[in-house]
Amino acid sequence: xxxxxxxxxxxxxxxxxxxxxxxxxxxxxxxxxxxxxxxxxxxxxxxxxxxxxxxxxxxxxxxxxxxxxxxxxxxxxxxxxxxxxxxxxxxxxxxxxxxxxxxxxxxxxxxxxxxxxxxxxxxxxxxxxxxxxxxxxxxxxxxxxxxxxxxxxxxxxxxxxxx
Length: 163
What we know:
Layout lengths: L1 H19 L6 H14 L2 H9 L5 H12 L6 E3 L3 H15 L13 H10 L4 E5 L28 E5 L3
Parallel strand pairs: 1-2
Antiparallel strand pairs: 2-3
Helix pairs in contact: 4-5
């Protein structure tokens, strides 16, 4: 829609300016008008870019810490596609690790782990905000699964689930 209207408005406005405004302006006045006119179309995109300037920085930093800890391989997560799409997509991209996702929030941790093992997914990322840093992941028989970061990355615990 915008890609059609912006050129159309530009042509229309400059045609009107050429007939009614430019006869009253000298050459430098015309150039200034044209510069301001086209620069006015940049205001909205620049403001939009300002809003998203640091979007994803925290995800990049988390992924960087995962890379430095050499955590490589596919991962599943406690966040579903519905809850964590943007963050988990960024982390998967920055770490170059495939993300095995479950689409809805109606799966238990036990079901997610069983599916992850069936597809050869070695890591389970547990994300938390605030409390949750004491979370422990257990096998159905009660055996603790190892947390591989030692709790050194705030907001995430990474468990090795095998394969």
